[in-house]
Amino acid sequence: MVEALKEVEVAYAAVDRQVLLSVAVPAGTTVRAALVASGIGMVFPDLDLAECPVGIFGKVITNPDTRAVQSGDRIEIYRPLLADPKEVRRLRAAKAAEARSRNQ
Predict the structure, then answer these.
(1) What fold characterizes domain 5-103?
(2) Which pLDDT score is estimated for 103?
(3) Which residues of 24-58 are buried (b: 16+ CB within 10 A; e: fewer)?
């Protein structure tokens, strides 16, 4: 019997470029295995596919080694944050408050 293939996309945005790859994988393939099958590791050799955080359509997947892909999924590889967004907002608010107090 012919095994059904699932068409998925793998997306990664590095600092200097973005890549979107399409790959057909057998039914039951895990998210992590689909990443490896896509060949994205050859495009970005510094990317640690075994440990990198991933998601599907913007939702983080906590178990990519067991979660099977569905046809049409877009697997996204996430980079670590350079700064904590809450801390950046706090610093911006403090700077704005200081500027307001100087202008009064």
Answers:
(1) Ubiquitin-like (UB roll) (3.10.20)
(2) 79
(3) ebeeebbbbbbbbbbebeeeeeebebeebebbbee
pLDDT tens sequence across 40-58? 999 999 888 888 899 999 9
Residue in 63, 74, 85 with CA at minimum distance from that of residue 13:
74
Smallest Cα–Cα separation from 53: which of 72, 35, 73?
Answer: 35
CA–CA gap between residue 22 and residue 9 (Å, rounded): 4
Element holding 35 (H helix, E strand): helix 31-38
pLDDT at position 1 over 50 = no
Average pLDDT, the chain: 90
Looking at residue 10, the DSSP 8-state letter turns out to be: E
Provide the pairing of β-strand 59-60 with 54-56: antiparallel
Q: Which residue has the tokens 């590095």?
A: 14
Residue 74 has pLDDT above 90, yes or no: yes
**Can you read off the two tokens belonging to residue 104?**
């009064």
